[in-house]
Amino acid sequence: MTEVLIIEENLSEAELLKQMIEQTATGFKVCGIFSSIMNARVWLLKNKMPQLIFCDIQLADGPGFDIFEDFPIAAPVIFCTSYHEYALEAFENNGIDYLIKPIDNVRLNKSLRKFTQLKELFAEVNSSYSKRISYTGGYTSNYKSSLLVYYQDKIIPINLDQVDFIYYNNYQVTVHTQNGQYETRDTLNNIFSTLNPKDFFRANRQFIVHRKAVSNIQQYFGRKLLIGVNSPTPEPVIISKANASDFLKWVEGLSTEDVILPLMMDNVRFTG
């Protein structure tokens, strides 16, 4: 049984969507309905991750995308909205489909079939990968060692050891080194999935940072963290309260020659 979470501001629309999901396709059961980001966060922190999420974009306490800033969401998301202009951002946030309200049974059924097909595809890929591991007698890393970027009408490889951070803004992803910045045509989610998590951390929806580039960490408002990076950043790099613990654990796994642990040092600056 596929467990589905619905995050929808209008509770009557949410109840209708629940009925449509459970009546349109077999094997789907709605495990929860929430009308705000806050309530959805609390539930997600305390419960097992659902296998599929339906999420409204305009909620009373902010855009639905804000849910993804606090902690990584492993479940695929079908976004439901009355607006057309958020489609690209939706696919940057685990989106597998984008439904314009009012949602009808035909369009809903098509989205659920898409989810099922993707689920079956990934199951086949995982099975094939497991077999390859057993044949080779162990694990082989598939992490990238370089990224292809665009510079002066050329495509060039950038060694990942040179990267300080990767930044997303206005549907454009740029790779930043101490020598400059470069454009890439890939999405931040796709790039992050190919990076070694020992070296790179997804700070928030806009930044991926390299461990060697972290120069200092400051406490910030609301128990968030403000990250100092060797190269100038277009805007502050902020780790959410929910991700702060994971980030510090990630930092603790590094050599002290690479980064200073500010919460254990005297020279840390505290703000707010």
Brief summary of the model shown:
The protein is of the alpha/beta class. 31% of the residues lie in helices and 31% in strands.
Question: Could you characterize the architecture of this molecule?
Answer:
With 272 residues, the protein is α/β, with parallel strands linked by helices. It folds into two domains: 2-133, 3-Layer(aba) Sandwich (Rossmann fold), CATH 3.40.50.2300; 146-264, OB fold (Dihydrolipoamide Acetyltransferase, E2P) (Beta Barrel). The chain is 31% helix and 31% strand. It contains seven helices and 17 strands. The strands form five sheets. Strands 2-1-3-6-7 form a five-stranded parallel beta sheet. Strands 12-11-10-14-13 form a five-stranded antiparallel beta sheet, with no helix packed on it. It has a three-stranded antiparallel beta sheet with strand order 15-16-17. Strand 15 (214-219) and strand 16 form a beta hairpin. The chain is globular and about 55 Å long. The termini are far apart. Mean pLDDT is 83; it is low at 132-140 and 254-272.
